[in-house]
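Our platform keeps sequence and structure together, in a single record for each protein. Such a record has a labelled line for the sequence and another for the backbone structure tokens. Nothing more is needed to write down the fold, since each code stands for a local backbone conformation. For reference, a complete record is included directly beneath this paragraph:
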Amino acid sequence: MLTRDPESLEAERADADRQYNDALTRLDAALLRLPDLPRLTAASPDPAATASLGERSRILPDAPPIPAAGPRARFGRFVWRLVAPVFDRQQRFNEAVVEALSTQLARERESREALASAVASFRDHAAALVAFQSKLIQFAQQITPYVDTKDRAIAAAVLRGPHEQTRALESALGMLQQQVAVLQRELQRVVTSGASGPREDSESSTVAAEARGSLEPPRSAKARSGQRRGWGPGARDEGGAPRELSNADRSREPASRLTAYKYLGFEDEFRGTPDAIRARMSTYVPLFEGASDVLDVGCGRGEFLELLRGRGISARGLELNHEMVEVSRARGLEVAEGDAVGYLVGLDDGALGGLFASQVVEHLEADYLLRFLELAFLKLRPGSKIVLETLNVDSWSAFFGPYLRDITHAHPLPPDTLGFLLRASGFQRIETRASSPMPDSAKLARLPLAAADALGADAAPLVEAFNRNADHLNALLFGFTDYAAIGEKL
């Protein structure tokens, strides 16, 4: 971000604020309002009216008053036999109507009670939803002030920067004064002793070389040792040509060359044969289809460069280990000798169409890694990919095996950490791709389902619990050995 134009950054910030405020306005306009719901009451029918209706449904008494004897009695009984069935049917009909009305009134009362309860429940739910949306608006309004506090943290870091630089300069100045004093004492000793010749020159050169070395910026352990993955300044200048060696350098040169040769043998024995490496790296080749000017940082013996060459993708390698550079060049590959940061600094911005580094980043000190990622983003063209493969230290078998086996490793990098560093360096579309799974023979075995049947019905939960624990431990102890963090510069 510090390399961007301030006006464009301010315009982007203003545009983002406008879009955020517009979205907040739309959200506020879309809030639900509490509807005006009717308040229902469960009205009950009048018991007196129901009783009165039952009484009125009876149209005749149980037995009409008929004389006991005489023509009038006989005529009354004759008439009653004629009309009694009609009145009886009417009576049953009236009773059925009254019973149906009573049942309907009871059901209506239950329905009104249920409806009143549903309306009250809906009113409470709607009120809670409106209250939640109000709190959501309040939360959204606090996002901008919260983000602004991050600017204060950045400003504090910027303000602290000059003070830290001043302290660093004061420390370097103190070291310089100490080394000057050492040189003065050594020069005085040579002058007063009257000695001359190669021995004194060699000793003076050694003292001077040590004085210069103490003032150099700190490097990774690998850089200081000059081994394969050191990625610090080596025994060549920025153009790749051998530089002039001092007597002190010459005294260390045999050991440095021997160390480089030893690391080549270390890779041959523990990392795998070239064929095995090519088979594993072949999965990354499609990521660079259509690209050109791909840089393989830490190309080693050149396996990935050979794969790219086979697909017609132009690429070159960068390697610090001199023995591996010679091996790669003997295969007809274009490989430069030097460290990653020093090489990237000399490139024009946008000069690369892709960057690949396999088993490199775990060898880098933190400051060097951050500088490497920053330069990688600047030197890649838009639309280019960066692929960083490293050991999956989240898997215990990988951490306590391959990672600790190599004494030149500087920092373990879990997948989420490396993905965050890529994102913080400006890369987007970050993804993690696991590789090199552990064989099933190395994992904890699950109990077969038949074991539960053999042990009895009560053993089934124990078998399931055991298998769940075995799966969890297998994921933790015997996960994928490697992974690649992949990002893209948009």
